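Budget justification aside, the reviewers requested a transparent look at the raw inputs and outputs of the sequence design task funded under Objective 1. We therefore reproduce one unedited record. The lines immediately below are the structure tokens for a 145-residue chain.
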């Protein structure tokens, strides 16, 4: 899909940050860029045309918001989540698998709780393994308990 970023917006961004957009994510089928990755690897949020109109902004007055540092909690919204995960990964944060839901989670999504389980391996041996528990699973447990 062709990505639409107005010439004015691009110029504004370049003058403001000295950076270019190297990657963009578009929302829905409008083709309008919402999240843009700059040449220094940071992501910014570009307001939609509707937002700009609603607030009476001109493109020059719109401030792109820097998004997500390493260690930030996960955001709502799929596109935002993808960007957030990329930032975490780029900063060297490693995902670990939650022992309850089996999803891979970044350290800030883990509760600090650890569960221990026993695996049987061939030859009748048993191996104790520990796995972290994510915040979602911990919350479910608290609600149920
Ligand atoms: Zn979990």
């Amino acid at each position: 899909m062709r990505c639409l970023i107005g010439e004015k917006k691009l110029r504004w961004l370049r003058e403001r940050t000295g950076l270019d957009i190297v990657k963009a994510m578009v929302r829905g089928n409008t083709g309008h860029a919402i999240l843009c990755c700059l040449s220094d690897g940071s992501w910014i949020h570009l307001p939609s045309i509707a937002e700009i109109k609603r607030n009476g902004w001109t493109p020059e007055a719109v401030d792109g918001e820097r998004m997500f540092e390493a260690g930030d909690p996960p955001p709502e919204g799929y596109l935002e989540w993808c960007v957030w995960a990329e930032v975490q990964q780029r900063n060297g944060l490693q995902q670990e698998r939650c022992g309850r839901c089996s999803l891979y989670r970044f350290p800030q999504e883990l509760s600090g709780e650890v569960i221990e389980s026993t695996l049987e391996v061939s030859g009748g041996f048993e191996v104790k393994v520990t796995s972290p528990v994510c915040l979602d699973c911990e919350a479910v447990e608290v609600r149920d308990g």
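Residues 98, 100-101, 103, 134, 136-137 surround zinc ion (CB under 6 Å). Residues 78-90 form the longest helix (13 residues). Computational costs for records of this kind are itemized in the attached budget.
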